[in-house]
Backbone:
């Protein structure tokens, strides 16, 4: 068995274990295993595993409240699978993306991504992806008070889960059916229909308890944990506090897998039912704990729930000043998070525009090939060779299996922030200046190309292995040391670079993929660095994050 085959087998084993941890709700362990697989795949021609590991990391990070890192992973993976025309992985990536978006409070965007995933997940072996996307759509509809549509979606999903024997996701769907009916009950109470409210709450509690029992059988600990907190909250509505306490104890028996969002949910639930049974001190203490945890995570819904519970506790205690301060804090935080949501909505729209452009190009490529060959081979902004020139050179290298070369892929760090803070005019000047740095630092025999917005590729012809790092470090240093303040006061710019050298049996596409993987890894390790290889000891490092 070859080394590459052995590595591939190790990666697949890690991903299988990570998926199992995700299914039972142990997202911390899932992230640890996903990051190990990601590091191993990034150093070789394991493109499928690389994308799978990136999605695994994104899913776990999203559940753990680390939304920015989660989005950076999944957006880059989504772009890659779209470019490859891999619709199976695109469906999964969009489902992961939808999951992260709904945790951030971007319900409408999550619904859109879930819809796209549903349209792609058409085969029986994609049933799990289909059901997850349907579940996310149902949650978005619940939050929008579109209860009839959510009910229809969950009923259909439950039938599919039952048909394929997907018991773990069946338990999740049942949990959310319980959530739906309690939300309907809350809406009825707001209309003054107390008896109807009670009926729906009882129905929701029964469904939640059923979900927990199913979860115990199939090992879905996350449903057990969330369901336990939900049941404690529902039972408190009926004044059944001793039973509520038992469910809180059950929650604590699972606390080793708790994410920050789970802790917020627990604390504000305890605050709520302690308030209902008249224990004001305990209600205030639990409410304060919920706020403390909620401020550091991305879930807008959890934060709002925590603030509401603490404000209620202050009000009941007669501390109207503190209650008012909490309401002010809620509105200030709401404005802040609205601004953040606007930022992510912009990135969401931008990504989808880019993806649609890529799909349009791929769809029309066969018809337009001759026309594309006739177009200029130079990027008009930077006057470097463009993507078509790069692709043409890659085809030439494919015909010469003995060619000695390396490929470096360079991406400017935080370039979108330059456009946002200084304007697109300054951004264009940055790209021109970077092009000048690259030309000055490279040899006449090297091909320097701009292949995307802020992404460049260099084909280093005839480079000896000992020289590759020196050349790329010179490129990186020339960008970092450039006098960027001459373009705008306070402007700084760095670049991350991934490099791979051609070896016997490797196609140019595989060399490029390896370099691109290393670029991604350079960013994950902190940016402003060159990665030419990933040491074996570094592959096993458990934690790193995108900054």
Residues:
């Amino acid at each position: 068995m070859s080394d590459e085959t052995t590595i591939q087998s190790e990666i697949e084993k890690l991903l299988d274990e990570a998926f199992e941890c995700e299914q039972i709700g142990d997202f911390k362990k899932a992230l640890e295993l996903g990051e190990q697989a990601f590091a191993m795949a990034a150093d070789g021609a394991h493109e499928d595993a690389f994308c799978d590991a990136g999605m695994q990391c994104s899913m776990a990070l999203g559940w753990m409240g680390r939304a920015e890192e989660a989005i950076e992973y999944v957006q880059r993976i989504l772009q890659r699978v779209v470019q490859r025309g891999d619709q199976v992985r695109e469906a999964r990536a969009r489902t992961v993306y939808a999951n992260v978006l709904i945790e951030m409070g971007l319900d409408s965007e999550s619904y859109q991504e879930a819809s796209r995933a549903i349209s792609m997940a058409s085969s029986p072996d994609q049933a799990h992806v289909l059901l997850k996307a349907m579940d996310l759509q149902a949650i978005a509809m619940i939050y929008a008070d579109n209860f009839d549509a959510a009910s229809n979606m969950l009923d259909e999903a439950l039938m599919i889960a039952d048909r394929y024997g997907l018991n773990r996701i069946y338990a999740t769907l049942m949990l959310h059916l319980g959530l739906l009916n309690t939300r309907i009950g809350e809406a009825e109470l707001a209309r003054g229909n107390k008896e109807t409210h009670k009926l729906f709450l009882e129905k929701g509690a029964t469904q939640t308890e059923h979900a927990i029992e199913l979860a115990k059988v199939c090992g879905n600990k996350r449903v057990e944990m969330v369901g336990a907190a939900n049941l404690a909250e529902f039972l408190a509505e009926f004044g059944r506090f001793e039973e509520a306490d038992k469910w809180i104890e059950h929650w604590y028996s699972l606390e080793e897998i708790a994410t920050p969002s789970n802790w917020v949910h627990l604390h504000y639930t305890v605050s709520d039912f302690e308030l209902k049974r008249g224990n004001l001190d305990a209600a205030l203490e639990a409410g304060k704990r919920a706020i403390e945890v909620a401020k550091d995570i991305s879930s807008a819904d959890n934060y709002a729930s925590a603030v509401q519970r603490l404000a209620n506790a202050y009000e009941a205690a007669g501390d109207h000043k503190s209650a008012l301060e909490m309401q002010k804090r809620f509105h200030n935080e709401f404005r802040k998070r609205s601004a953040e949501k606007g930022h992510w909505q912009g990135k969401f729209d931008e990504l989808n525009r880019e993806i649609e452009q890529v799909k349009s190009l791929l769809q029309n490529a066969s018809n337009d090939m001759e026309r594309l060959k006739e177009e200029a081979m130079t990027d008009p902004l930077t006057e470097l060779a463009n993507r078509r020139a790069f692709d043409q050179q890659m085809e030439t290298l494919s015909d010469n299996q003995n060619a000695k070369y390396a490929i470096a892929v360079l991406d400017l760090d935080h370039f979108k922030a330059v456009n946002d803070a200084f304007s697109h005019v300054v951004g264009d000047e940055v790209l021109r200046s970077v092009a000048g740095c690259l030309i000055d630092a490279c040899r006449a025999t090297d091909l320097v190309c701009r292949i995307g917005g802020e992404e460049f590729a260099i084909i280093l012809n005839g480079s000896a292995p000992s020289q590759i790092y020196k050349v790329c470090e010179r490129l990186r240093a020339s960008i970092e040391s450039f006098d960027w303040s001459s373009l705008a006061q306070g402007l700084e710019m760095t670049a991350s670079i991934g490099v791979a050298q051609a070896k016997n049996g490797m196609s140019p596409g595989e060399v490029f993929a390896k370099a691109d993987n290393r670029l991604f890894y350079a960013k994950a390790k902190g940016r402003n660095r060159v990665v030419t290889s990933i040491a074996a000891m570094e592959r096993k490092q458990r934690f790193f994050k995108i900054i």
Observations:
- The longest strand covers residues 405-412.
- The chain has 22 helices and five strands.
